[in-house]
Structure prediction request, 482 residues.
Amino acid sequence: MKKLHLLLLRSYLGPFILTFFIVLFIFLMQFIWKYIDDFVGKGLDTLVITELLFYASANLVPMSLPLAILLSSIMTMGNLAENYELVAMKAGGLSLFKIMAPLIVFIVLISAGAFYFNNTISPVANLKFKSLLWDVTRKKPSMELKDGIFYNGIEGYSIRVMTKEKDTGKLRDVLIYQHDKNAPGNRRVIRAAEGEMIKSPNGQNLMLHLREGVSYDEVVSADKEAAPHTKNVFSEDFITMDLSGFDLQRTDEDLWKSHMKMLSMGQLDRSIDSLYKQKANRKHDLERYMERSVSINDTSGHQLNLLPDTHSVPLFEGLSLEDRRQAVNVAMNMTRNAKNYMSRTKEELASREEYINKHKVEWHRKLTLSLACLILFFIGAPLGAIIKKGGLGLPVIFSVVFFLIYHITSISGEKMVETGKLLPHEGMWLSSAVLLPVAVFLTYKAAQDAALFDRDAYVRFFDRAARLFGKKADAKTSAEPA
Prediction:
């Protein structure tokens, strides 16, 4: 490999790795901010939090990678142009494409790796992420008693402690309301001078050891006016509470495996074929139902065709008035049933088609990331050569603008697929279709050394245009007769 190729790769790898992890960190912070209320106060283990953030990071790669490629491309080529290294290479007889050749090979490898990641690793990471996030959001907050405030985290109990000694863990002035599922209200009230919390060895139960207290029980009776109250004074009492809901219960991942976001392209192909077969079977059921619904039997058991041929015997010939009325009523009922059945089937088929389109969207999503990496590189690298600015100033502005165009068109295309305005392949490749002409234009202008963002070039152009129009106006004035 030539030294120039190594120089370009080293110049690109640093900004690429830096920007990728910065962008990934920003998106990860956005995820944490979104779910911060579901994480706080639940006593999650550090390993669980680390695992969740790791899977979340894996799912944010498709968002971070295109932006990192775009920004690092602008920064690298902008630095080379700003330091006149790009000019020196071109003076040595190298064209822009020869200069970019090692970077193009590197981006092609990155795009291939992105496809493998999106098709193989991302579905697994998405499965584990969704499963773990579901478990974390369903986990109850950890038990933490605050002085003078009722705690209702344990089902069936409402506990208030006036003071809790931090050193000894002793509870002072404990008030407990015990609820009954079958009978609303506070059926049992317990008050104790002091108490102590003791967890079972397996952590599944909590035992409250109460001292010097009294309990009031209301006996449930059919006659509410005659319901007696019992009072029990105790010097020592124990209450056992179930804490199994406070543990993180891991959901079986098999429940999520069939979701379209958890499937690879091969699995999506098989799932789409299966869904099409189910849709075809549903249409066949509709046809069979309609075939059975177009005929009825008369009182003698003979079949009456509701859609008779014009040359056949009249439908009601030989029937009495009562039989005719009965035939009309049966026909009207069958028509209503057929209409309702067709309406329900139409909605069901539309729902099935929408579900199939969602699978197709995920199928195309596996490919769009790879092409987006290539397109954004051919936008960023020529753009950096044109603007001749490196660093994190102007390149960041251009990167944000083009990434927003890419992201907005991607989301808009996906939404239009969901609403049925575009086919799946049209909506998912909309962003690529919008940005590809921009990439071709910028690459052509950079190869021609066009001063696309040079203010002086535009000033000279408008000056020439003003002089040209001025000369035409003077010529027109001189041509007019005095």
Q: What stands out?
A: The CA atoms of residues 80 and 402 lie 21 Å apart. The beta strands are 150-151, 157-164, 171-179, 186-199, 205-218, 229-242, 295-297, 303-305. Residues 321-387 form the longest helix (67 residues). The mean pLDDT is 79.
